[in-house]
Amino acid sequence: MYEYLRQLPKTELHLHIEGSLEPELMFRLAKRNGIALDYASVEDVKAAYRFDNLQGFLNLYYQGMNVLRTREDFYDLAIDYFKRASDEGVVHIDMHFDPQAHLVRGVALDEVMEGLFRAKEEAEASLDLSIGMIMAFLRDRSQEEALEVFEQAAPYWTRLDAIGLDSAERDNPPVKFKALFERAAKEGLALVAHAGEEGPADYIRQALDELKITRVDHGVRCLDDSELVERLRSEQVVLTVCPLSNVCLKVIDELGEHPLPALIEEGLKVTISSDDPAYFGGGLLANHVACRDAFGWDESVFKALNRNALEEAFIAEPRRKALLQRLDSIGE
Ligand code: HPA
Ligand code: ZN
Fold first, then answer.
1. What is the average pLDDT across 196-224?
2. How many angstroms separate the CA atoms of 248 and 159, rounded?
3. Residue 140 sits in which domain range?
4. Cβ atoms 63, 26 nearer than 8 A
5. I need a surface site. Which of 41, 181, 264, 273 has the fewest CB within 10 A?
6. For the chain, how many structural domains are there in total?
7. pTM greater than the 0.70 cutoff
8. Is 15 helix (H, G, I), strand (E, B) or coil?
9. Region of residue 117 (left: phi > 0; alpha: psi -120 to 50; beta: else)
C-alpha cells in the first residue's frame, strides 16, 4: 500500500511554501544571511514545533521565515520543496505564498517573486511537476494594506493563478476583504480562501457569498451546518482538507476523529493537502499514509481524492488531461 501511495500521481491544492521551510534550510539561510536564530540546533527547532492552536503555529511560522531575505533564499526554499515533493510522487502543487509577511520585514516584493518564479519555472522544466501560484493575503492585517500590495504586484498578475486569504481566522471574517476579492476578480484571477478551519461554518458561507470564492481551504467546520453541507454538495465546491495540519493545530484531537470520512460520506468534493509540511510532520505522502493508517481506506479512495484535486487544480488543460489519464490507468 505504501508503494501504491508513493507512486500514485498526487496533487495538492493547499500548500504554503513558507511552511515548507525545513529546519536544516533555516539554519543554512540564517548562516548565509548572518542572522542569529533562537535555536541551538535542528533538534531544538523540531522540539519547539508543538502547537496549541493556529495562532501558536503562526507565531513560529512568521518567526521562521525571517531567514528569507533575497531572491536566492526564496528560490532555495521553493526548489527544495519541489524536489522533495516530486520524489514522493507529487505531480502538481497549487502553492500559496504570503507577500505581506515579507514586505513588513523590509524584503522587496521583487525578491520574493523573482525567487519563487525561477524555482517554479525550473521545476516545471526539469521535474514531472506543475505549479499554480496563489498570492495569499493576511486576514489579520487591514484590507487597505492588502489592496496596496495587490496593486504593487501588478507586473506579476498575468503569472498568478489566484489570490487567497490566510493567517488568523478568528474574528477576521471573510467579508473584511470584499473589495480586495472584487478587485482581483476584475483582473481575471481565481479566488480561494481559508474558511472553517478554526472559524465557524458561517465564515465558509460568507467566503462563498461575499468573496465569490470557488475553492474552500480547510472547510472542515462545514459539518456544523447541514444547509451549508447541502450547498457544498450540490455545487460540488472543493474543500482542501489538511489532515496532519488539523491534528497539529488541535482543530481535532486525533486523526481517527477527523471528519474526513464524514465529509466524503456527505458526497462533498474532498481533497487532501499538506498545508505546512515542515511544521506538521510531513508532506503529501505522509498525509496519505496517515489517512490510510487512521481510516483504513483502500486504493480507490486515494485515487478519487487525487482525481478531485486534479479536476480543480490551476493547471494547463493538456497537462490536466494527461495526468487524469495517468491516474486512471494506475492499477488498484
Ligand atoms: N491557516 C491559516 N493560515 C496559515 C496556515 C493555516 O493553516 N498556514 C499558513 N498560514
Ligand atoms: Zn493553509
1. 98
2. 33
3. 2-329
4. no
5. 41
6. 1
7. yes
8. strand
9. alpha
